[in-house]
Each structure stands twice: as C-alpha cells, then as structure tokens.
Write a structure and sequence with these properties.
CATH class: Alpha Beta
CATH superfamily: Luciferase-like domain
Number of helices: 11
Shape: globular
Radius of gyration: 18 Å
CATH architecture: Alpha-Beta Barrel
C-alpha cells in the first residue's frame, strides 16, 4: 500500500504560500499522492484550481481528487479541466468523483439535489468519450484518460464503479469499515466480469502535536456539522499521535487498501513535515 497526503485546500487560514510550499514539499517525498477535497459553500479553494497549480509545481507525485462533487459541475467543462490537469502534470491525475451529501452546495450551484445520482452516472458515461473527442482538446496524457474512482456507500456506487471506473474510494473511518466496503467493491467487480481487481483507495484525518489536536478536531466538527451528532464521531477518529497513524496505516494495508490518503486538519506546514517523518520510517 502507498500513502498519500492531502492539501489543506478546505481549511480556513490556508493561504497561497502554504499551498505552494505544501505541494512542493510533498513532491519531495515520501508521499505517493497529493489530493484535495471539495466543498462549494465553505471557506475553501476549488479542488481543480488547486490541482492545476500543483501540476506545474510538482514533477513526481500523483495528483488526485478524493473526491470532487461532480454533479455540481458541467460535464464538458469538468472533462476539459481534468484533461488539462492531466496534460499539465504529465499524466499524473486520478479523478475521484462522488455525489456529495450537502444540499446547500447544490442550492448554491443551482443543481437539483434529488437527481444528483443520475447526474453522476451520466457524467461517468460521458467523460471518456469527451476525452477521446479531438474537438475538445487537449487530449489527456494517460491512455483512455485519467484514472477514475467513484466514492460513496450505496449499492449504486459500486454499480457505477464496475461500469465506468477503475476503482473505489472509501470516505474514511477505521480499517474495519473499509473491509466491508472493499468486499462489496471486489464482489461487484467479479460479478460484472471485469478482469483483475478494482483499485481501492481510502482516506483519514490527522493533526500531530498536542496543540494541533484540538484545533484539528474543531475543524472536523465544523466541516461535518451538517451531519449533526455524527460530526463528533468523526472528530473523535482524528489521528493525533505517530503511533495512531502507524497503526491506522497498518490496518488499512492489512485490509488490502492500495492507496491511503491522510488529510491535514491544521493549516501549518509543520504538519506535512511531521507526517513525512512518520510515513518515512
């Protein structure tokens, strides 16, 4: 299993210098992936804008959205933006898509929340065709376009994955929750008769240091406030020590995860440096 790191694009207080230095330093290792989150009605940077900037500031690390709320976006523009990032990065983009769970994002975008699943299915069906259409250049560097992942927990998620995508991205939690989702993904893949195995990704949140722990937990409470009391459970799962992170990584590796992305919850470059020390050992 490989371990990636998230960019702090959804954390209030993250400025230009932090995002630039974060991307450049992440590219130096030991991380495999540099990923972003997505939210519209929030104090955050657009994930595709940030990845486009990271594409020209990095050379080695893969870039990913885990996830982008694609039904909020026009499909043709999404395809073109993704193709552009793939070209600017030299073919390093993984595009994770999901419907999201916040109605206010859909209201702000003027998109019907009730048909978000239908829109995602239509987008997945259209993306590769758009990438192959020379009239909509640039053509992605990667054959057949960027790697596609689908996020979510419904049965429809796994049906979309096996029909249109290369794998599945799990939204977080302890490794035991990933095990159940991975079993569903592998079973759907097998039932569909697709060769090989689906790519399996997951994510978690961390804040290293005694002062960072409470700030990180508060960020998660605020970011997931729309879930009600469940936000407290998410905050309680914050990884706050090197030992907790190492155990979390081992648990996901044993569960068969291919890529684990750890997202910061405090907008300080020292958080990247501390995580690099843990992952590098």
């Amino acid at each position: 299993m490989q371990v990636g790191i998230g960019l702090p694009n959804t954390i209030s207080g993250a400025d230009r210098d932090l995002l630039i230095n974060w991307a450049r330093q992440a590219d130096e290792g030991p991380f495999s992936i540099l990923s972003v989150l997505d939210r519209l009605v929030y104090d955050s940077y657009d994930p595709l804008t940030v990845l486009a900037a990271a594409a020209v500031m990095t050379r080695r690390i893969r870039l990913a959205t885990t996830i982008v709320i694609s039904p909020l976006r026009n499909t043709a523009l999404l395809a073109k933006e993704a193709a552009g990032i793939d070209v600017l990065s030299g073919g390093r983009l993984t595009l994770g898509l999901a419907v999201g769970a916040r109605p206010d994002d859909y209201t702000a975008a003027g998109v019907d929340y009730s048909i978000r699943g239908k829109r995602l299915t239509e987008q997945l069906a259209a993306l590769r065709a758009q990438w192959e259409d020379e009239a909509f250049g640039p053509r992605p560097v990667q054959p057949n376009g960027p790697e596609l992942l689908v996020g979510g927990g419904s049965d429809q998620t796994f049906a979309r994955m096996v029909r249109y995508a290369d794998g599945y991205v799990h939204s977080g939690g302890p490794p035991k929750t990933f095990v159940r989702a991975a079993e569903k993904a592998r079973a759907a893949w097998l039932d569909a008769g697709r060769p090989g195995q689906p790519r399996l990704w997951a994510m978690g949140y961390y804040a290293l240091g005694s002062e960072a722990a409470e700030a990180g937990a508060n960020y998660l409470r605020h970011y997931y406030a729309f879930t009600g009391s469940f936000a407290e459970k998410i905050a309680a799962g914050l990884l706050t020590t090197p030992q907790a992170i190492a155990q979390f990584i081992r648990g996901y590796a044993d569960a068969g995860c291919d890529e684990l992305v750890l997202f910061p919850t405090v907008p300080e470059l020292s958080q990247l440096e501390r995580l690099a020390e843990v992952v590098g050992h």
